[in-house]
Write a structure and sequence with these properties.
CATH topology of the largest domain: Spore Coat Polysaccharide Biosynthesis Protein SpsA, Chain A
Strand content: 15-25%
Number of strands: 10
Distance between the termini: 45 Å
CATH superfamily of the largest domain: Spore Coat Polysaccharide Biosynthesis Protein SpsA, Chain A
Largest sheet: 10 strands, mixed
Shape: globular
Number of helices: 8
Order of helices and strands: EHEEEHEEHEEEHHEHHH
Length: 263
């Protein structure tokens, strides 16, 4: 059996209680944003190891990168602390890996219990993922071969996500870069965890800043095709806010293009 390790970006943890709260059943790393710097290691009753890495650094990208530095699993999952894993998730992952043993990444389904985050899609069948439809997925649902991450020098952007300057996008850029560097990526219809979304550290509604930040992200991810992606994105979001029609969304996202040049 492959060694699967869950890397959790979390906040204000003082011990290993999150291991049971999230129903973790494999080795885990808790990359913990708090007000101090420390390292502790716990052995669970099931024999698995939990590493609690605490720091006062801010930003989900920094947190995920820190967890990757301490990872030892053959496969890693970059999870969030509001996830509750399914019983036997490791076996479900193994079954999917057995279908495509050369896969570098498999993106699974999550079940959203209190859904408010936009853009989350459910996979209906097992298939190869392509670049043009990859931006809808996040890495919290991705199982990634750690050797591929290290071989291709992949890491998370520190510009985007909770605690960073711009709203979500660090995981989309990670997947975008994985494609650029030739990783084989698949999607699977299996649910491996539930998500209890009570609040978000970055999504506060479809504001002007939300759309400007999306323009910054698209300029970063698709510098050549950015204008085409603006129209595609704006068309999909044209009805989500009474204050933001198709043309206003396009205008705001193009403001994001200009801001990206100044970063």
């Amino acid at each position: 059996m492959s060694k699967i390790e869950v890397l959790v970006a979390c906040m204000n943890q003082h011990n290993d209680e999150l291991y049971s709260t999230m129903n973790l059943q494999t080795d885990a790393i808790l990359a913990n944003q708090c007000d101090k710097y420390s390292y502790r290691e716990y052995t669970q009753s099931d024999g698995n190891t939990v590493k609690l890495i605490s720091s006062a650094d801010r930003g989900v990208g920094k947190n995920r990168n820190k967890a990757l530095l301490y990872a030892t699993g053959e496969y890693v999952i970059n999870a969030d602390q509001d996830m509750i894993f399914e019983d036997g998730y490791a076996q479900k992952i193994e079954e999917a890996l057995s279908k495509v043993p050369k896969a570098d990444m498999i993106i699974f389904n999550l079940e959203y219990l209190n859904r408010f985050t936009p853009g989350k899609k459910q996979t209906q069948k097992f298939k190869r993922l392509h670049l043009w439809n990859s931006m809808r997925y996040g890495t919290a649902r991705a199982v990634i071969r750690r050797g591929a991450i290290e071989k291709k020098c992949l890491s998370y952007s520190t510009l985007y996500g909770g605690g960073a300057k711009y709203c979500s996008g660090e995981d989309s850029l990670f997947i975008r870069e994985a494609f650029r560097k030739g990783l084989k990526i698949y999607v699977a219809p299996t649910v491996i965890a539930k998500v209890k979304q009570e609040e978000s550290s970055w999504f506060t509604g479809f504001s002007d800043k939300y759309f400007i930040d999306k323009g910054i992200l698209i300029a970063n991810a698709f510098p050549v095709l950015k204008h085409l992606f603006v129209y595609y994105f704006a068309f999909g979001k044209r009805n989500v806010s009474k204050d933001h029609n198709f043309f206003k969304i396009c205008k705001l996202m193009k403001q994001g293009f200009k801001q990206y040049k100044e970063i």
